[in-house]
Amino acid sequence: MLDVLKRLRSEKKITQEQLGKAIGVSQQAVNSYENTETQPDFNTLVKIADYFNVTVDYLLGHESHNELPAEIRKYSFGQEEIELISEYLGLSFNQKKCINPMVEALRKPEDYK
Fold first, then answer.
1. Domain range for residue 91?
2. How many domains does the chain have?
3. According to a count of CB atoms within 10 Å of the terminal CB, is the N or C end of the chain lower?
4. Chain center to CA of 23
5. Are residues 85 and 51 in the same domain?
6. Biggest CA pair distance of the chain
7. Among 3, 9, 7, 40, which residue's Cα sits nearest to residue 25?
8. Which residues in 56-83 are b (16+ Cβ under 10 Å) and which e?
């Protein structure tokens, strides 16, 4: 996982401190994950996977590649879209029910003319 974490962080061009803040750990904790001193607990591992939009298996080296499903690959997502999707996926059922009508309304711009 250590090489994978370091590579993902490098690809995203973020510091250990930025990653730590995003997942709720210190910069020192991220450094220790990357330098084999400690391993993240399960909850932190899930946060890291969510942050980088990869699977936990990928982080642990159980997947040979980090390929998105075909139905998602057809889209070219920027970082902002990936973050929005991640945020949406983290919402509760009721929160999603509140947002879905807004998304549907945005799909029909003729309603706003």
1. 70-112
2. 2
3. C
4. 10
5. no
6. 59
7. 40
8. eebbeeeeeeeeeeeeeeeeeeeeeeee
pLDDT tens per residue across span 74-94: 666 677 777 787 777 777 888
Tens of pLDDT, residue by residue over 10-46, are: 888 999 999 999 999 999 999 999 988 788 999 999 9
Give CA–CA dist 55/74, Å, rounded: 19
The amino acid present at 80, given as its one-letter code, is E
Q: Which pLDDT score is estimated for 32?
A: 93
Under 8 Å between Cβ of 33 and 40: yes
* Residue among 78, 37, 45, 2 nearest 54 (CA): 45
Query: Token pair of 56, please?
Result: 């936990």
